[in-house]
Amino acid sequence: MLNVGIDIGGTKIAGGVVALDGTIIEQLRVPTPVDTGALADAVAAMVGDLASRHEVHAVGVAAAGFIDRTRSVMLHAPNIDWQNAPLRAQFEAQIGRPVTLENDANAAGWGEYRFGAGRGSTDMVMITLGTGVGGAAVGDGSLLIGANGSAAELGHLRFVRGGRPCGCGQNGCLEQYASGRALQREIADIADGGGIGSRLAAHRTAAGIVPGADLKLLLSEQDAGALEAVRRVATALGEACGAFQAVLDPELFVIGGGVAELGEDLLEPTRIAYETSLPGFGERPTARFVTATLGNDAGLVGVADLARLRT
Amino acid sequence: MLNVGIDIGGTKIAGGVVALDGTIIEQLRVPTPVDTGALADAVAAMVGDLASRHEVHAVGVAAAGFIDRTRSVMLHAPNIDWQNAPLRAQFEAQIGRPVTLENDANAAGWGEYRFGAGRGSTDMVMITLGTGVGGAAVGDGSLLIGANGSAAELGHLRFVRGGRPCGCGQNGCLEQYASGRALQREIADIADGGGIGSRLAAHRTAAGIVPGADLKLLLSEQDAGALEAVRRVATALGEACGAFQAVLDPELFVIGGGVAELGEDLLEPTRIAYETSLPGFGERPTARFVTATLGNDAGLVGVADLARLRT
Amino acid sequence: MLNVGIDIGGTKIAGGVVALDGTIIEQLRVPTPVDTGALADAVAAMVGDLASRHEVHAVGVAAAGFIDRTRSVMLHAPNIDWQNAPLRAQFEAQIGRPVTLENDANAAGWGEYRFGAGRGSTDMVMITLGTGVGGAAVGDGSLLIGANGSAAELGHLRFVRGGRPCGCGQNGCLEQYASGRALQREIADIADGGGIGSRLAAHRTAAGIVPGADLKLLLSEQDAGALEAVRRVATALGEACGAFQAVLDPELFVIGGGVAELGEDLLEPTRIAYETSLPGFGERPTARFVTATLGNDAGLVGVADLARLRT
Amino acid sequence: MLNVGIDIGGTKIAGGVVALDGTIIEQLRVPTPVDTGALADAVAAMVGDLASRHEVHAVGVAAAGFIDRTRSVMLHAPNIDWQNAPLRAQFEAQIGRPVTLENDANAAGWGEYRFGAGRGSTDMVMITLGTGVGGAAVGDGSLLIGANGSAAELGHLRFVRGGRPCGCGQNGCLEQYASGRALQREIADIADGGGIGSRLAAHRTAAGIVPGADLKLLLSEQDAGALEAVRRVATALGEACGAFQAVLDPELFVIGGGVAELGEDLLEPTRIAYETSLPGFGERPTARFVTATLGNDAGLVGVADLARLRT
Q1: Whole-model pTM?
Q2: Hey, which family's this protein in (chains A, B, C, D) (predicted)?
Q3: How many C-beta atoms surround the C-beta of residue B27 within 10 A?
Q4: Which one of A43, A85, C53, D4 has the fewest CB atoms closer than 10 angstroms to its CB?
Q5: What residues in D contact A228, CB-CB < 8 Å?
Q6: C18: which strand partners?
């Protein structure tokens, strides 16, 4: 049985036909239209195109935003003009197939759980460190949804009381301390301070950021400024994972998103901070930390699998 | 169908025959033996006694401690000499009926979810404020267990980095800021400071604590010291619930245990702190806060129901 | 002996002839020119005018900004275009009398120490809660200046690690938690949250703030939202004063600025937080908290007295 | 002119004849008697002995404890049975020369300021990292005493709200995060955690500590566990120094005590944390960090100099 996964990102829509084992049989990409009508048409056309060549059962659509508990209504999307939009019904009418919606971070988490870094686990947490932070939690093999459909908003764990203001209206959210943007903020602070920041400063682009490749180079040379910047973000991430452990008790943390490309340079200080802040029950096993393996396909694959399960 | 619930506490064992609707048909109580063999005999005798008068299907046993993922082995119990004890197999051999184990806080949470304050919800968090703190989480109608059987250890959320040492070996755990013991510590701090603490000081017993009834009296008279002590504990509790909301997204927080007897005097400042620290997603619904309704029977009733479900 | 004090504020310049006992013999006010040349001319003209009617010895000039250790050069001023400006030499050339410079918060602190709420003490801390926070410290009868002229920048004590960004480039400064602006932020948070914030919300002006008079009214009626907003600011203030006590050991905290007009409604919760966070040496005396008594004249009177002492 | 300095430690009394330039002409040592009478006799005998060979002007006595503002009465001493003891009068009667008292950390700070690492500065802070933390502050060339004689209790800055309990009765004091004892606690935490702590664990003595020489060895080999332990303590120290800068504005931090023997391994991460938490006024100069140079003689030399100044 084949299902289609659609991952609506800020700049492009990716759609793919996904087999039961998570293999992508065929994948298409188009730019994301700004107009919501044009966007729906683009999704419908993409599904129609794929379905003309493959026998498709159901369709899963992943996008950033808050989705109601029944996965039918997009309550609020940060990048697209959807407010209380009954997307599932609209898409089903246009596409003529069963549709499910899912938050993009949840879709990616489910993809990794089923076919990627989380395969074989029962209780897993995925943290996607992009510009912001996305979260997903799997408990006893089920995706955690929550009473209002907003469980696992892990980037909005309040990490510092009275902390940095967050776009969500709250302050001190983890996202302000462990994300791609937070990493660049730490880099800027250290670069501006001179001393150990001098090499970071030299690698800043006109836009004021240090590109990932440059950062990896500096880390490989044990540059003190680069190590310090990553250590700060990793410390926040690891301490937050200690909190997630107390609540969710996963066996595995999967770290994804662009920041996760730092690999062990990120994971090693993360584990130290995690172990430091983990409620210490003596014999208690600790969770493993791994990086995601499906890259940008995780959401597409995951939401296709959720479509299969829910329809 | 009737099931038996056994709640092994620090000082007594309560056992009851529980109907499908949570009604306790008959209940017995005996002191808790120190010796583990005598304890097992007491449980078996109690079940035998109850089963001689009722048609019993299965037996659930609740006790404080860490229980493996399969709910068969007590990994570590704080009050009883059980280390990696295969209690399920032992009890089944002695009792001759299917047995399940559950952590006492989880059992109480499940009891409230099914038959008490949480009835009708799908996603609920229960926090039991006794001497320490117990936690339970229900997600989409299932009790959250975790990869190692230790999910919802809500009292061991790290609340203050570099905070008060906790009996678990970690520091800064919520239990050190929001529990019966934490409340008495705040009371002592305020009483010792003179000023607004003078009436609290006057109500201290020889053991150095202010009994609950005295505290309620002072609260009813708007004593500034008593209000401040409760506010501190409620602030910690409410802020932690903001974190639990971000992760678990319950519709309901049920507050139980002895401290919950303060009722609205506790819940009102808790809600203020919760709302202050809740990731603010605009339209997002907030959870309700209620006190538990089953009292000391929650664990017994809950574990009997879990026995029914699991066997 | 008479001296002139000049207090250059953001909107007006106040100048006065001050007697040895702190009495203001005559006072003038003019708007603050934007141009630095015009500003200097206005100060010179004001001094000339006053000196035509009084026998003036020396002149003290107070303004917001960082002033070098010798009190001769304005290193950086937040509101006026002075960078490394040798103001003392310039003013002395224009005025023909000895001149001293002082930071405005220090001038006000010295004024209160000599003639206001701090009279009779030897070690005093003044905290001015205006839009931002100003600080001054007197130790054994001397104004604390510091190696770089920037001691007693009390508003920039780091109060929350990883906290709210501050205009000074740092984050988590006390000014972001205890100041007029911080108070309005807490009010806004509480008002936006509904519940106990409903009356605060009703008193908001078009500019989104709750005027001081309205706030005092609500406090007098024990409005829970107003009490909570003030309590938050007072808690930050009181905890910071605990830190200042450990370092400076004053016998007196004088609280000035617009927020101090809340009087005991502010001071009472401040004292509670102070005592809670004070290093507790048993018998150790605690400092008193009082509000300033000289109001807007404190800076003018203080800097005139400093002119006398230094010239 | 020669003066005598007496430094009463927990295990021994050191006494020395000190020249105007801080040179110790002759030094004696005796064990510290437990009995306060015997202790006073020992001090008097030591002074008598020294005075028989040198022309001595005045005597300074340094000891741990809280001393009144006039430096005449020991209010409370942690190690010796002195409570409100009029030591100055007692010693003067026994010794027949003018006497001053000083807190041991203040005496050491004054010694370093006048003759050691702080020479040539005007505003200096000294932090002595022994088992606990001692502090001293010099402002514009004067030792900061405070209204109650207890200024510069820098180890009791509240560093973590709700933090580790401190022997002073308060919680979260800096001493619990940056001191010799705190360093050993971090070492123990890391050693117990396995992983990067394995080499630390291997170097633990029967008493459970890692001796300084072993720690220096591990640091020289870039052992990750040792680096992490020191980094934690240095981070707390550096952040606290950011707070001291905002209040006292020194040009120099002198770090003394046993932990300071780690030298640059301690100072380098301290500077990073200091700069991170320093209120950032752009052009503002930052303070230098150096280690103390007088070692155990600092207190004796400092209190002799204070005796000269005060008598």
Answers
A1: 0.90
A2: Belongs to the ROK (NagC/XylR) family.
A3: 14
A4: C53
A5: 272
A6: C3, C24
Residue C227: half-sphere exposure toward Cβ, Cα within 13 Å: 11
The predicted pLDDT at position C25 comes to: 97
Does D50 have pLDDT greater than 60?
Answer: yes
Q: How confident is the model at residue A96 (pLDDT cuts 50, 70, 90)?
A: very high
Distance CA C90, CA C112 (A): 28
Give the closest-approach CA distance of A297 to chain C in angstroms: 34
CB C53 within 8 A of CB C47: no
Whole-angstrom Cα distance, residue B162 to residue B176? Answer: 12
Which chains neighbour D (Cβ–Cβ under 8 Å, 3 or more pairs)?
A: A, B, C
For residue C164, what is the DSSP state? Answer: -
Fold of the domain spanning A121-292: Nucleotidyltransferase; domain 5 (3.30.420)
Per CB-CB distance under 8 Å, the chain A contacts of D228 are 272
Q: What gap in Å lies between CA C183 and CA D292, rounded to an integer?
A: 43
CB–CB of B272 and C189 under 8 A? no
At position A159, the amino acid (one-letter code) is F
Nearest CA in chain B to C191: B276
Q: Which residues does chain C have within 8 Å of residue B189's beta carbon, measured at their own beta carbons?
A: 276
Matching CATH topology for D2-111+296-310 and D121-292?
yes
Q: What is the C-alpha to C-alpha distance for residues D78 and D70, in angstroms, rounded to an integer?
A: 20
Query: In this structure, how many other beta carbons lie within 10 angstroms of the beta carbon of residue C33?
Result: 15
pLDDT over 60 at B281, yes or no: no
Interatomic CA distance for residues D59 and D43, integer angstroms: 10
E strand or H helix that includes residue B82 = none
Domain ranges of chain B: 2-111+296-310, 121-292
B-facing residues of D in 138-177 (CB < 8 A) are 159-165, 171-172, 176-177
The ipTM, to two decimals, is 0.95
Question: For chain B, what is the mean pLDDT?
Answer: 94
Residues 60-89 of A with CB under 8 A from B: 66, 69, 75-76
What span, in angstroms and rounded, lies between the C-alpha atoms of D84 and D66?
Answer: 9
With an 8 Å Cβ cutoff, are C162 and A163 in contact?
A: yes
Torsion D295-D300-D306-D308 (CA) sign: negative
A168: amino acid identity, one letter = C
Does the distance separating the beta carbons of C276 and B189 come in below 8 Å? yes
Residue D276 C-alpha, separation from nearest chain A C-alpha, in angstroms: 8
pLDDT digits (tens, 9 = 90+) for D113-137: 999 999 999 999 999 999 999 999 9
- Measured CA to CA, the distance from residue B274 to residue A158 in angstroms comes to 11
Contact at CB, D160 and B159, closer than 8 angstroms: no
Place of tokens 């990067």: D196
**Any A CB within 8 A of B277 CB:** yes
Domain A2-111+296-310, architecture per CATH: 2-Layer Sandwich (3.30)
Q: Is some CB atom of chain B closer than 8 A to the CB atom of D33?
A: no
Closest CA to D161 of B260, B235, B155: B235
Pairing verdict, β A133-139 and A124-129: antiparallel
Backbone angles phi, psi at B164, to 5 degrees: -60, 140
What is the C-alpha separation between D34 and C308, in angstroms, rounded?
Answer: 53
How big is the A-C interface in CB pairs under 8 Å? Answer: 30
- Per residue in A60-78, pLDDT tens? 999 999 999 999 999 989 8
Mean pLDDT score, D9-24: 96
Q: Of B165-179, B281-295, D257-271, give the lowest mean pLDDT range.
A: B281-295
**pLDDT above 80 (res B243):** yes
Q: Confidence class of residue B194 from pLDDT cuts 50, 70 and 90? A: confident
- Which residue in D195, D196, D272 is closest to A196 by CB distance? D272
Residue type, A86: P
Cβ distance C244 to D247 less than 8 Å, yes or no, reads: yes
Cβ within 8 Å of residue B213, ≥6 positions away: none
